[in-house]
Request: fold
Amino acid sequence: MAQSVITDDAVFYGQSPPVYPSPEGTGAGDWADSYAKADAFVSQLSLEEKVGLTGGTSADSSCSGIIPPIERLNFTGLCLSDAGNGLRTTDFVSSWASGISVGASWNRDLAYKRAVGMAGEFRTKGVNVALGPVVGPLGRIVSSGRNWEGFSNDPYLCGALAADTVTGIQSVGVATSVKHFITNEQETNRNPEDNITAVSSNLDDKTMHELYLWPFQDAVKAGTANIMCSYNRINNSYGCSNSYTLNGLLKTELGFQGFVVSDWGAQHAGVATALAGLDMVMPSGSDFWAKNLTQAVNNGSVPESRIDDMAQRIVASWYKMGQDTGFPTTGGGMPEYLAAPHQTVIGKAASSKEILLQGAVEGHVLLKNDNNALPLKSPKLISLFGYSAKAFDGYTPEASGWNGGSESLAPSDAIAVGDETVHSQIAANGTLISGGGSGANQPAYVSSPFEALSLRAYDDDTSLWWDFHSGNPAVDQSSDACIVVGNAFASEGWDRVGLHDDFTDALITNVASQCNNTIVVFHNAGVRLVDQFIDNPNVTALVFAHLPGQDSGRALISILYGDVSPSGKLPYSVPHNESDYGPLQNATLPDGIYELFPQSDFTEGVYIDYRAFDAKNITPRYEFGFGLSYTTFEYSGLQVSLAGGADTSAYPSKPIVEGGHEDLWDIVAQVSATITNTGPVVGAEVAQVYVGIPNGLVKQLRGFAKPVIEPGQAAAVDFDLTRRDLSTWDVVAQNWLLQEGEYTIYVGSSSRDLPLTAVLLLTV
Ligand code: NOJ
Reply:
């Protein structure tokens, strides 16, 4: 008998196991001093004052969220603001390369320095909590609208770069809000709407630990003061009232000492969220907490000790960031921007010009370079095409560029480009430097490819032709090179409607039919398929520029002209076809008996991106970790050894500190190799280590390094493999298991170019 449509969410109750009571912060590790201060502070507060710390309030400021001050005790309140790629809704700040570009740089040092530079701007503006970085979505669904905000769909790469971002931002005294906890893998139905609940991410314990929790674990280990719980449901319990994920995974297993804030409007219950481990609600406490929370304590529904714990976690974070002394006025540089521009600006943020540019440059990945098309060599004539080459037509406080742009590019919109009408897979109204939504940011200026190329043309006496509108432009056949700059847009709030668009593909083939040196560049907010044009012999080069931020054009030109050799590598795979993703191409929709309760079943387990392509023997067009350079590298001299004195017992047993059992981070094995620059120019190479764990995946990334090597020189690269790197999650023991057996260690330049292999034998 066919099942009828499910109309009552009671059917699902019980799938996410209950974990109560909510663990109280203990002040473990380097939190001890801050907890002691917070304890003394909170003990002086009335119940109402403590509750006041837990809920957002409105104020005359463009902060995304505000916690009011408690003036009698010199607590100055909190301003929380978006986001992980730069501060938005204010002026005198910078547009940094987005998460996906940092992922493509594979550069930990750069991730750290970018974070420091960005955080200086948050601090100057009086922002206490930067609402980023993003590690969820991880990128399970390839078309998910927010994948670009994060670093990579590989948990190891994502986690490493997130950890450096957390350390960098917090070193400046600004707290990070690592988000969105957890399995926030699609925008479609992320929130309840029209009687349909938010989508439920249904997954098993092993997948949770080995994929989705992994980067959050790195961020907690790095000391993030804040975690943002997500809109979606996890095994049918909302992200901000899920006692298993908040009380269990985060506060027990990972020993998290900071506070949990709700995503904006992600709270759907009062008492239940308090007991499940939520510590602060945004943007307003008044729907479920505020007076109701006081009442819940007074009538015994919520123990006062839970409110004390919330207050202590919040105030301890404020002390830990050193925000009690010398911090700029809370929200002081965050005016109601449109109403009163400049009114409350404190001063120009200290910007790190060099890092802004380096971030833009290293996010570029060179994927094809036939006939040495690149670098360009004193061209006499260049023809430039494509809507992503030119700057926005106007950029004023009223029409704030990429944020506003995202609104006008809703997926149902059709956009006129010249006399063609195209779907909004692309941002057609100006060069794309960031994706849309709350992760978009505010550029101080925009260096577009056209402007940067024009400056270079001046230096080199090059002539330019250009057409940014036509899908079938006239091409001067004597052009030394024809450059086509397109994009692939994505935004918070909706998922991408495709991974390639016919307008841009036709533009490329139209240009290539008249120009035998066609160089294609994409500003791509995610995977962009290229099979419709890439085998065309007149398409000689392909660059994925990703989302470079305000120095976009300058960075591109430095790559195209070889001022710097490209060193980015793909932080995801590029397959031939959409169908290669199977069900992971598109978001799950409400359907059948789940019309009102959309159920996204993560039945693929840990097999996403290259893990899935490896397992299913699908050859991608460009594999995970791939990227070309203007020089060449050779790998040699692999050495793999057990670390001296390594404890190889099956499970970690030391106490839990922030991030989990302390001995999860013990170094169990060491890997080293030599890389030689065998080509003509200096270049940086991303060397990658993959491990095949017994009874597990063929291989997964477990290390990377990026030395800069002069021509003819060699560099040694060393990698430490920790207990966690070599373990799998044991669902019965509820712990990380180190198995006895042979571990294959691969070293090379991409996930499918691994010239060095060795076997590590572990006896447990
Ligand atoms: C909702 C988004 O999901 C989150 O990432 C953002 O920080 C908040 N809105 C605040 O703008």
Q: What stands out?
A: Residues 364-564 form a domain with the Rossmann fold fold (CATH 3.40.50.1700). The longest helix spans residues 108-124. The chain has a mean pLDDT of 93.
